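Box 3.1 A note on notation
Throughout this textbook, protein chains are presented in two layers. The first layer is the amino acid sequence; the second is a token string describing backbone geometry. Keep the layers aligned when reading.
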Amino acid sequence: MTFDGMEKQSGAVPFNEGLPIRYDLYYPREAAKNPLPVILFLHGFKGFKDWGTFPAVCKSISEQGFAVIAMNFSLNGIGDNPMEFDRLDLFARETFSQDLDDVGRVIKAIPTGDIAAEGASLDVENIGILGHSRGGHTAVAAAAEYSAIKCLVTWSAVADYNARWSDAMKNDWEQKGVTEIKNGRTGQIMPLKKVIYDDIQANANRLIALKRIKECTMPSLLIHSNTDEAVSVDNAQQLYAASPATEKELLIIPESGHTFGGSHPFDVHADAFPPPLELALSATKDWFGSHLK
């Protein structure tokens, strides 16, 4: 798998508390005469921009004539090492409000030149957004929040994060102020402070995807697996039913799981993506190609 015609620039924009929002910007080496439409890529819970297939996915999308900005949320727990959760103190307080504000900060960084492509210009008024899992949940809220976003795609998105908190988690928060989860991939025990729960409860009308999808009239493509082991397919069905967009599509991919066959690490020299991921990616590129140019 090669992407010889692509450029990649990496950087960070400072935000709250001076914490960086780290990003990778992918775009065609042969810059177009017109400004490039921008696509924001949002990772999910316990995810990061460099996870598994995500960099190759972003490169593949950029081949279609887009500038793709893959961002790490400022509180996602990834520090100086792009592959390790070495800032669990930040992960423990990664609120949905902060994630949504991070997206807004990245959007504002484009016209100011804080995020720029050498040899190309970016179209800040023509932005698409793609989010996976919790990132899909935030992508819906961002599409409703920021008028520059003109096209929405979600992969395995959560519809209502408030429906995912277990009684055990709520009890921990009430009694100890913190609950813990295990990262199945790394074995790390990862803390979640009560501020996360309090934030999304208090700001549900701003943060819950199932509420904000009702404001999303832009073209919207919702992709999900019917055998998603982490986020059931009814989440996508609920979002689709609630969407008022005149141009919308629900693509259900059979027997493919939460990441459509992608895994971490991913062999960047592989000849192809797993077939379910290739299907999701092809549909995504077609959608942006039809609705964002």
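Residues 6-160+207-291 form a domain with the Rossmann fold fold (CATH 3.40.50.1820). The longest helix spans residues 275-291.
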